[in-house]
Amino acid sequence: MAIFTCEKCGATVDTRCKPKKCQKCGESNCLVKTSPPPDKSKK
């Protein structure tokens, strides 16, 4: 799974493939892949 963040409204989407449109603001080509913060509790 990957987390994508909308550059327009800041909404985050957790999905397998890159969404074409942001569900929140409806803009297209505005979602960028953001790496989740490293989880130090898991080993």
TrEMBL record:
InterPro entries: Rubredox_RCKP. It comes from the Bacteria. This is Rubredoxin. The lineage of its organism: Bacteria, Pseudomonadati, Thermodesulfobacteriota, Desulfobaccia, Desulfobaccales.
